[in-house]
Amino acid sequence: MAEDIAELMQSMGRRARAAAAELAFAPADQKAAALNAAADALLANVPALLQANAADLAYGRDKGLSAAMLDRLMLDESRIAGIAAALRAVAGQPDPVGQVMAEWDRPTGLHIRRVRTPLGVVGVIYESRPNVTADAGALCLKAGNAVILRGGSESFHSSGAIHAAMVAGLRAAGLPADAIQLVPSRDRAAVAEMLRMVEFIDVIVPRGGKGLVGLVQAEARVPVFAHLEGICHVYLDKAADPAKARRVVLNAKTRRTGICGSAECLLIHRDLVNGLGAQVIADLVAAGVQVRAGEGLQHLPGTVPAVPGDFGHEFLDMIIAAAVVDDVDGAIAHIRRHGSQHTESILTEDDATADRFFQRLDSAILMRNASTQFADGGEFGMGGEIGIATGKMHARGPVGAEQLTSFKYLVTGDGTIRA
Fold first, then answer.
1. Contact, 41 vs 168, CB < 8 A?
2. Are the C-beta atoms of residues 70 and 60 closer than 8 Å to each other?
3. N or C: which end of the chain has fewer CB within 10 A?
């Protein structure tokens, strides 16, 4: 069986490399046509996709997935329409390939341009969210890359149905079907093979929990864009506007608890504990959130005492940790100690305090008076995202089509020689 998986992955790698060579110079309108045709194929096959998703949900329930994880997995007509809309949004964006990033002339007579170029072949390893199949496929295609997708076992059937629509789009536009490939096996040996395929894959993007990302970072021989945990903090400053704060905190935690942009820790300025802070916590409790309160907050109704492991934990559920801090510097220190450099938000009307928060934290995304649920490539105007990169090399924050390119130098002379 291991030999079969190895042979399968080598074949996929060879075909992806061949497809990437064609995509590198594919016209922008041809790639856009493929994505629009894929959106059409999705919407034309909603019943089949819902049936595939029902099989995945049954599998997930049998495995004992939490309600939040089942929500990540679930598709309905609205979410399928959203996936199709995201495909069209990516199709409508400017094509990054060939964009001139900078150009200049040298005294020697050389004219130099730095232009965007595809990475080549991208490998994406992800867990339960089937929409990643479309997002990753679309963004890689837009950037002129071939992609090998390895979805989670829970989303096996849904990802397969979405992939079929992507392939239909490629064929309709006359692009190679091997440009977007999905590993047709739940066998984890396929992941191990991908991590070693340096001759075929140029970069790996893991999208999932700490266990998956840690495994990929530890074992990959291929370069990795890391998408680590979303341990997102919201700091309630003493200069916060009460109406804004109550609205934003509730949305940051409860809109969708199973996504990486969900707030996992609320930090409250000491002066607000028995005023606005108590109101915000009461709002969360009323909404069904379990508030795990640190020292100074445990007297508030409906809270349960926090334990040390609650800070720096990604719950992905209707649970939030809460702590008291003395000021913005205390919030910064707490986030540096417990955060994952994903997304943090400050709620304040004080410009100097907000500036200090922005300057002294180094998370990929920092927000002011906005919900952390906006940590999303689609909300950033990228059409979609392949993940939120929390590392500092090459790509950071939402990884869209532009971040899936590298660059090359085009140098023009006129019989120019070096003295």
1. yes
2. yes
3. C
